[in-house]
Amino acid sequence: MDRITAANEVAFRIGFSGHSGHLRLEPLPPVESSNPLRSLPDFILPPAFPAETSESLKDILEEKYLLPELDPHEFSVENSGRQWVFDWFDSAKVHLEPSAPRSVVAPSWELPFRRSKKTGSTGLWDPSSVQIDVTELIGGPQDSGTLGRMPGPAKDFVRGSMNNRPFRPGGLDDSQALERALPEGACNGEWVREVINGGVAQAVPPSFKKGLELGCLKEFPYHWKYTNEQLSAAQIATEENLNRYSVQFDDLFKKAWEENVIEESRSDESSETRVETKESDAIDTVPEAETRESDVIDAIPVAEGEETEGINAIPKAETSLDEILLTDPGGTTAKLSGASNDGRQKEGEVWALVGGSEEIVNHFYELVPDMAISFPFELDRFQKEAIYYLEKGDSVFVAAHTSAGKTVVAEYAFALASKHCTRAVYTAPIKTISNQKYRDLCGKFDVGLLTGDVSIKPEASCLIMTTEILRSMLYKGADIIRDIEWVIFDEVHYVNDVERGVVWEEVIIMLPRHVNIVLLSATVPNTMEFADWIGRTKQKKIRVTGTIKRPVPLEHCLFYSGELYKICEGDAFLPQGLRAAKDAYKRKSSSIVGGKSGTKLGAPTSVGATQVRQHDNSGRDKIQKHFKHQVVDNLSGTSGGHQNSWGSRRSESSLWLLLINKLSKKSLLPVVIFCFSKNRCDKSADNMTGMDLTSNSEKSGIRVFCDKAFSRLKGSDKNLPQVVRVQNLLRRGIGVHHAGLLPIVKEVVEMLFCRGVIKVLFSTETFAMGVNAPARTVVFDALRKFDGKEFRKLLPGEYIQMAGRAGRRGLDKIGTVIVMCRDEIPEESDLKHVMVGKPTRLESQFRLTYTMILHLLRVEQLKVEDMLKRSFAEFHAQKNLPEKERLLLQKLRQTTKSIECIKGEPAIEEYYAMASEAESHREHIAQATMQSHSALQFLSPGRVVVVKSQSAEDHLLGVVLKTPSATNKQYIVLVLVTDFASSTHTPSVSSNKLQEKESGNFQQGYFIAPKGKRGMDEEYFSSISSRKGSGVINIKLPYCGSAAGMSYEVIAMENKDFMSICDCKIKIDQVRLLEDPSQIAYSKTVQQLLEQKPRGSKYPPALDAVKDLKLKDMDLVERYHACNRLLQRMAENKCHGCIKLKENMMLMKEQKRHKEEVNALQYQMSDEALQQMPDFQGRIDVLKEISCIDSDLVVQLKGRVACEMNSGEELICTECLFENQLDDLEPEEAVAIMSALVFQQNKTSEPSLTPKLANAKQRLYDTAIRLGKLQEQFKVAIDPQEYARDNLKFGLVEVVYEWAKGTPFADICELTDVPEGLIVRTIVRLDETCREFKNAASIMGNSALHKKMEAASNAIKRDIVFAASLYVTGV
């Protein structure tokens, strides 16, 4: 403040003391004058302060910063025992700590419908007063940093600035982001110990390269005294438990693995109480200073409906270790951050609440007696519910059909903001909707408009803007956000948009907690799921209301051969109407003589007629030109022969004339005809040459309106071919609406259609999304569309959105929807799918962008991981976290039996690890070798093999009985079943019958061959089976039995089920084993198998994978040798051959499984389990590589520049600037090259460029390829060529260059085949890019680039391209 002169030049200074706002009076040194003696006052001694020296400054710094005082009460003898262990920072009274906030008495606001009971004698409401802290009065938008910030300059009030930090998003109060800002030494008390014990001070802060050397810290004298006599028994028990487990969380998991902790917990079982007892008694038994633990336990999230079972399910062996595990480390942070009651809700609680009750509707005007705005009509049920909840200050989600009256809710939010002297923001996905809403609401409220190129009354209380503008304001911390009370999201189902849907999720996540949300959406199946995500993300209750009832019911018809067939009414499908249409199709097909008789009845909608019609209208599109030859053959639905293009057009125009005449006779005009091609809209309208649907008075009105609207165009712009053509169509009552039209032409068409003078409007689907203009009838030209990648059927949501334009509320009793049928009748299933099927679910389109990462990295307290966790894609995973936490605690409480070694130091872990690795190698080798040709040659009948066991612990020995054949594709193998397996199988009935059959008259013995024929096995077998086998299998698989004291089983298997092939074979009799089963043959086969087992081993030696099976793959050979080395080491281990090896291996396996389950749960609960975490890590590496951030994730200058780039790809724009690619270009050339960053059409004619522009184009393309390869190198899912092709489109470089040089618009349109509307849209976006480059130049300090961008912006800002919107300025 200015000096205050008193007496003889004695000056004082008035300042504010601390954060409390107390005034203080400080004398200043007197001003030197020519005669110092005469200037001295008579009543005061000279008050001059001693001069500051380096020693005095050092003393002051040491006293204030290096010698903190300790509160004598907190550090008293009674309290020192606990405080010195845990709470260092909260108990140390540092000099610079802000003073306590003041308390004030303020009136408490009450809902209007509750005030009547408390009115005073005057009849006026007499509010009650409460005493509150000042911090609660200013607790609206929290800053993302630890300290608040002052409002910025007025020029950045609306748009914000890169120098501002974003406000802290609502719902992040429970985030651990603040803990990231505290280094480990600050968290565990090491820094405080350093301050007290003295020594070398830490001088370099994190992320700093240099620090300030202040010398060594002085030792602070202290001593300890304990007086446990005054502590209660409950306090002592709590002290011991806390001291025992005073460790970090990671160490806690480590302790949980140790046996002694588990045993200790079990020994304390009798002295500990259950968790539910602690929850109820902790507050009564523990003093106030010790209740934090019990408070946190009370706040443990429990799923709704499971609270009782969850608590009762916890075993009685609950120990103090479990209490520490259950403690939320962020509990105190949440309290200090001032979280509201909603922020401490249980995680399992449902945040989305469905609608209200009948009481709200029946007593609405009693509950809301003083409405912020009155409506001239009776409100619907859902509107009353929404307004009631808005009055209560709740967030609302309204889901209703088109024209149901959702705008009433938005208007009431605007009225509440005006009444409360706050602000409301309305966001829409399309600029046209924003302009229309501005026109509609301009007369009712104080409305402002903010889009990319328009800024009207940004200081207004009600702001209408695009969602991208709001996102930019949030990231740049615009101060206007402090005043916002409501944010209204219109057309929320647009979140499904692949390209821009992520913007909605970003904005919803980034909104501060003081902002309430109003969501307006069409009906979607998962409304509750989406609302629950928003409520859980923002920690707010979301009231869901709406209606599935249409204000004007719809009827759906097919138009075929001049007749309408009703096939659906409301939500009821009418099959008889479809059958009538198919009968007409049959009659017409059978009446055709010669040529093709039409498509097969009932065939699905084919490429002909519907898909090909799309291609006919491409004109300029190469993809559509590919199908142009099909148009001549298939366009007409009434003839099968070839026609010329004139005949095709004539047939198409006659079809439209037939339909419109039919609609006109039935009074079903005006009609909107949806065609899914811009070129098809134009051709269809142009072909209707002989139709005139307007009266003379309507023609006069249209002419006057067009003259006024187009009068703002200059010179030749008034005579542009598109302007002249559209005016001729409009005079006849025919309109065209698509993205290729000039903006002013589109607005003229929209306004005239709303006036009712346009009777037929050919439009693309953008009319249904961006214009609120219902019609009497809606016609679908086809039920297929090209979505930019492929032709596909319409989705139910798309059909419902467009069909909803049929029926004008208050004018029509019913809306008519017609589907055109030319060559065929669509399938019933396809019609049901689009007409009465479920609309498209709201799905997350969230993806990481470099701009998002850089904006969040600018603020250390906001983590990118928090943004990922709160995306709609991660909603279900985050919702299940509390259940996983409880499961993890249960796993940690489980005990595993310890392994006792009888040979001294246990080595079972090493042995188990080697065995597991060897088994892995062996499985890889076996899987590869069993598929090889060499192995198949060895797998002949009689070959001994080792087979995988499905039930037993060990593998099984077997023999191949039959190889695969034409009738049987598997190997038939006899295997010896283990004792465990055989105990579960009884000999099959077939084997018992076999014994009886073979015994015949010799029931007590076997058939004995003559003595002279017992010599050789071959003779023995040949005597039993002398005939040749037929290959037929006469036994039922699996075939079980027992022989020679062993159980066996005959099964079929694939070659992949073989573990190994043995080096021996036995002789078998296929006939007696498979065709004519004999018990003698099975006994002999089993005996031979047992004889092949060598002593001391389970299996015969296997064929060597390298020598015998010819294994040649380098990786497999390396695995083979590694497996042999491991087996050798296992044989040398002392556990090998131990009598307890099997038991200990089972215990070790159980311990490993338990540990893997715990690790899996910990991983699922960590940030690493997020779906987009790998992509995030790759993008972070890319940003480091190009120096946007440093190794400590601190945003550098290049990163700040990248944050400014919103209209083009941020990395390409930033590299272009830092490589000075625009320096050698003139402003016109620079803006022409920049057009490649914002132009969006893929297929265009090749532009003709000057050598300088061609060189600049190649340079920019090479930069994009380099960045694409860099991202591919760091595992970002990007193809370099596709990345460059998608983000750089040079189709309008020549056009923009000529436009910047001053060429008229009519002339530049001749240079390209791009529609005029897309040219204007590109140049308008280019102006926004120039502003971004200009801001980037200011950050870089490049004045030359700043001037060049300003000149480029001025060069393109002229004439029709920047003609003001008719919605904004009026006509």
Automatic annotation (TrEMBL):
Keywords: ATP-binding, Cytoplasm, Helicase, Hydrolase, Nucleotide-binding, RNA-binding. Residues 387-542 form the Helicase ATP-binding domain. It comes from the Eukaryota. Residues 659-860 form the Helicase C-terminal domain. One of its GO terms (molecular function) is RNA helicase activity. CDD domains: SF2_C_Ski2. One of its GO terms (cellular component) is Ski complex. The keyword ATP-binding applies. Residues 262-281 have a biased composition (Basic and acidic residues). SMART domains: DEXDc (SM00487), DSHCT (SM01142), HELICc (SM00490). Signal peptide: none annotated. Residues 262-291 are annotated as: Disordered. Coiled coil: none annotated. Its main location: cytoplasm. It is found in: Cytoplasm. PANTHER family: ATP-DEPENDENT RNA AND DNA HELICASE, DEXH-BOX ATP-DEPENDENT RNA HELICASE DEXH11. This is DExH-box ATP-dependent RNA helicase DExH11 isoform X1. It comes from Elaeis guineensis var. tenera.
